[in-house]
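Let's inspect one such protein example.
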Amino acid sequence: MWFGLLRSPLTNLLGRFAVALPCYTTTKRLRKLHIARDVILHSKKYNSIKMKVTAEKNEKVAQMIFATIYPLYLNRLEKNGRTKDELNQVIEWLTGFNEAKLQELIEERVNFETFFQRATLHPNAHLIKGVVCGYRIEEIDDEFEVYKQCRRMEKLIDELAKGRKMEKIMRVEKK
């Protein structure tokens, strides 16, 4: 039976030949096509596309006012059933700012650059790894430190929003 054309990122890799591939649901041919597509999609070449941080992006994030972003973080967490106290606990773990100091920084309307300059980062902050918004945290160059710290904080907040346990979010170095 004809069910249309096989359309996927496979089309980009195989060019005009992938567009002309028919999809049959019950044949071995379809299974072979899907296996071939999966091999290509999971290959290192296909997944090696890396997002690079530029000086402009770093500067743009550095000049963002923390007080304007904090309510967005809080809103996202509250939609997912988490509390302001949990958000503050995660930020305190990363930066060392207690709730009073955090409120003072919000009222002062500091930008992210100042926010992270005043912070005493947790010794295990380097254990925060993974991808946030297409950027792999551990691959962000050290010259873009503000951007890297901001992405680390966003990673913690993402994990909190997804329901991860606090013990796992606040990383502990394995012995």
